[in-house]
Automatic annotation (TrEMBL):
Similarity-based family: Belongs to the E2F/DP family.
Protein name according to UniProt: Transcription factor E2F8
Gene transcribed to yield this protein: E2f8
Gene Ontology terms describing biological process: negative regulation of DNA-templated transcription; positive regulation of macromolecule metabolic process; positive regulation of nucleobase-containing compound metabolic process; sprouting angiogenesis
Subcellular location field: Nucleus
Naturally occurring in which organism (per UniProt): Emberiza fucata
DNA sequence: TCCTCCCGCCAAGCA
DNA sequence: TGCTTGGCGGGAGGA
């Protein structure tokens, strides 16, 4: 029944609306007026009746017939098509794509200026729009609802809306972001993802119940429309359908982007969050499908607004649709915090010059006091519930999420900026010098006069530095010197969250700094807790810390070294626990970042770089690298011999890599460590693995873990056995995948990291690196089941552990 | 086969 | 009571 009706009606639409414009054709023109007594379909009949009843519509019809040459061309084309094909109306129908909501939205938006003059309001008459765009009213509602959610339009009366354009967009987005943060959407996203993985291993478990309790009941967690000052919300059925409204859904959807990092949201996650807040108990496939449908509707409109862009996220379970935020960056409004407590009765400002403070506060606390237009009070419950849930997992501050996020951010930061800049600005000679200075026998002394501006030692780094500095340090165990990069914020984060990580990088505490010309990038960080707990925005303290005598860090290093040496064969977990106890709070450390071996510099001051290698390093010195985030500067292959600059997109959940990025990083020199190695070139997987392990503090610097046992990259380090115990297993598939776990004694949790290096199809195609985490069930007192499976079968070895398998590859269509 | 989303039914609620 | 609004899901087009 449905299909014939649809075809008939659409065909009729073409006839009734386009035939009158066929006059310019050479073929005999059809009569302008459709014969009243010859209705083709009920739809056309209805339209005719409507037209007859409404003089306005009639006059519009006449106006339309006289204008719009472009549409006339289109109509002519259709008319011609009709003539040519006779009754084959179906073939003359616009394709499904031509009728898409996105295209329709484009047409709709083209009618109105992005930034209309405030003095000249544009009004939208739905009848007019539906007529002129030749669409059903229903479709316009879809568009208008989404636009309304962004306060680009507002309803004035029946059939009548006001067009605001993008004037309100920044304020709206800011308000949405704030509400999204308050709703802890990011935690919800993470929770959903985690439970997805849990569900894989416990499909019949009571996860739904748990999830429901986290989200709260539907009544509790429903969230309402976020209002903006001066943009009144007059939805027709605001009281009845508001919670399921496309407007609210749209706002929530946007919130997810605004709080996510990166700003990529999959439809699946978005739908689950929306369902979770709506009616979790009714979570079923049909509801999910419906939500997805609506999200497509919203996404189409948002895409037309160029706020989002469709991408695909490839996971192990398949390619999933997702959307990436391409709209304006929404900066946090630092003033908002103050507002929350004070501005509940803010008078409604209307003018364009309204301050963001007022707007935001109004958005969050409407003057009318209608709670249902802002956050629902039950959100507090929701947040508490989420936090409780998190506490269950994260009994100690060593949050997997936080660690992974900070770690990855750190990785990104390092690999994108510091490392490349560092290398690009160091000559081979400087490298050698640093290596020499960094040997234990020759603890570096700050001698500014001898140091070029770009390579000053730790103690003389001016406070104007910032962020991150590379530090060259020796590694007595491996005989390789390393460059350490550390980001203050990372140091702060990790130290604050995870004392369990403090044990690791200590053998590397003999530091000397190298200052970069780029003050934005480089800074020296010491490895003391006190420093670590400083915020990056405390340069004075930072400087003071940097000027501490090296004795202390050296002592720290030695202490750590002693510890690590005193426990050569014990289980690393126990060692960590022991370390934790012995360290107590008297002296703590934080991960000092990646240890980047300067593979050509031998430990002990007799650094020698081969001519070839030196040339490789030197070739970098004049090369300017740029972060791919701010702009990619592709490097010639010749410059990638020694170092490749990674192109990352960072996220707590995934990392995107450009080809060869990690693989070519000079992380490890097998020749220094592994006499059995036949190649001086590092095994990419092994390098990356050690790179990561060292950074996250799982292994001491210099200890090398075989990323690919099959390839016999067995470390010669005496401590490698410890690693195999603690890290569970490593796994490399075709040299492309690394999985390993590490254990946090603080929260009794294991973390699984999985690095996957996908085979690039094209040179610049991003590769995916995945990060996984799971926890040991059984509560904080459960002794984690750690074993060293060589095949990466943590599922077995860990019993019931949750093995998320996320291999995210984000690709744009 | 699955993704995408058009299409229109029909109910809520407004004028 | 008629009309507007919009939730909802069937099912078709497209990849």
């Amino acid at each position: 029944l449905k299909t014939p009706l649809k075809q008939a009606s659409t065909s009729q639409l073409v006839l009734t609306e386009r035939q009158p414009d066929c006059q310019p054709l050479t073929t005999p023109p059809k009569p302008k007026e459709t014969p009243p007594a010859d209705p083709w379909t009920p739809t056309s009949n209805l339209k005719m009746l409507i037209s007859a009843a409404s003089p306005e519509i009639r006059s519009r019809e006449q106006r339309r017939q006289l204008s719009d040459s472009s549409s006339e061309v289109l109509q002519t084309k259709h008319c011609l098509q009709e003539h040519l094909l006779g009754d084959e109306y179906e073939k003359s129908q616009p394709s499904r794509k031509e009728k898409s909501l996105g295209l329709l939205c484009h047409k709709f938006l083209a009618r109105y200026p992005d930034y209309p003059s405030p003095s000249q309001k544009s009004y939208i008459c739905l009848d007019e729009v539906t007529e002129e765009l030749h669409v059903e009213r229903r479709r316009i509602y879809d568009i208008v609802n989404v636009l309304e959610s962004l306060h680009m339009v507002s309803r004035l009366a029946r059939n009548r809306y006001v067009w605001h354009g993008r004037h309100n967009l920044p304020q709206t987005l800011q308000a949405l972001k704030k509400v999204g943060e308050e709703n802890k959407y990011i935690q919800q996203i993470q929770m959903i993802k985690r439970r997805e993985y849990e569900h894989e291993f416990d499909p019949d478990g009571e996860r739904n119940e748990e999830m429901a309790s986290s989200f709260g009941s539907s009544e509790q967690s429903e969230m309402s429309f976020v209002e903006l000052p001066g943009v009144e919300f007059r939805a027709a059925s605001v009281n009845g359908r508001k919670y399921k409204s496309l407007r609210v859904m749209s706002q929530k959807f946007v919130m997810l982007f605004l709080v996510s990092t990166p700003q990529i949201v999959s439809l699946e996650v978005a739908a689950k969050i929306l369902i979770g807040e709506d009616q979790l108990e009714d979570l079923d496939k049909s509801k999910f499908k419906t939500k997805i449908r609506r999200l497509y509707d919203i996404a189409n409109v948002l895409s037309s607004l160029k706020l989002i862009k469709k991408v695909h996220v490839t996971e192990e379970r398949g390619r999933k649709p997702a959307f990436k935020w391409t709209g304006p960056e929404v900066l946090p409004n630092t003033q908002d915090i103050k507002l929350e407590a004070t501005s509940t009765t803010c008078s409604p400002p209307i003018s364009e010059s309204i301050t963001s403070k007022e707007q935001c506060s109004k958005a969050l606390f409407p003057s009318k006091g209608k709670q249902n237009f802002t956050r629902h009070s039950s959100l507090i419950k929701l947040v508490k519930s989420i936090e409780n849930d998190r506490r269950k997992i994260q009994s100690a501050p060593t949050s997997p999420v936080k660690i992974s996020a900070s770690t990855y951010l750190f990785i990104i930061f390092l690999l994108e900026t510091s490392f490349s800049l560092f290398l690009s600005q160091m000559t081979a000679e400087e490298m050698q010098m640093k290596c020499a200075l960094s040997s234990p026998e020759a603890v570096p002394k700050p001698e500014p006069s001898q140091q070029p501006a770009l390579s000053q030692p730790l103690g003389v780094c001016p406070a104007s530095h910032s962020s991150v500095s590379p530090v060259i340090l020796p590694h007595p165990q491996s005989g390789v010197s390393y460059a350490i990069y550390l980001h203050p914020s990372q140091a702060h984060t990790v130290t604050t969250y995870s004392p369990g990580f403090m044990l690791q990088p200590l053998p590397c505490a003999n530091v000397t700094g190298i200052k970069s010309n780029n003050s934005k990038i480089l800074n020296i960080i010491t490895t003391e807790e006190g420093d670590a707990q400083r915020g990056p925005d405390e340069p004075a303290k930072s400087l003071a810390a940097e000027e501490r005598p090296e004795m202390k860090s050296e002592t720290s290093s030695q202490r750590c070294l002693k510890r690590s040496q005193a426990l050569p064969d014990s289980n690393l977990i126990k060692r960590r626990k022991s370390d934790e106890e012995s360290l107590d709070t008297s002296l703590t450390f934080f991960p000092s970042g990646y240890l980047i071996p300067l593979t050509h510099c031998t430990h002990g001051n007799k650094a020698e770089c081969s001519t070839k290698e030196k040339a490789g390093v030197c070739s970098l010195q004049h090369t300017a690298y740029s972060s791919p985030i701010t702009g990619v500067i592709p490097m010639p292959a010749s410059e990638l011999k020694t170092v490749n600059i990674p192109a990352f997109h960072i996220t707590p959940l995934n990392i995107m890599l450009s080809p060869n990025s990690i693989a070519a990083a000079p992380v490890l020199s097998n020749s220094c460590l592994n006499s059995s190695s036949t190649s001086s070139a590092p095994n990419p997987s092994s390098s990356a693995l050690n790179f990561m392990l060292q950074h996250i503090g799982l292994i001491p610097a210099g200890v090398q873990v075989p990323a690919n046992p099959v390839l016999q990259h067995v470390p010669v380090s005496s401590q490698s056995e410890n690693i195999s115990h603690s890290s569970g297993s490593t796994n490399v598939q075709e040299g492309k995948v690394i999985e390993f776990t590490f254990y946090s004694p603080i929260n009794e949790s294991n973390f699984l990291f999985s690095l996957q290096f996908l085979q690039p199809k094209e040179p610049q195609e991003p590769q995916a690196v995945t990060e996984n985490f799971f926890r040991t069930p059984g509560g904080p007192n459960t002794e984690p089941a750690l074993s060293a499976n060589s095949d990466g079968t943590q599922r077995t070895s860990q019993g019931t552990l949750y093995i998320p398998q996320r291999k995210l590859e984000v690709s744009e269509d």
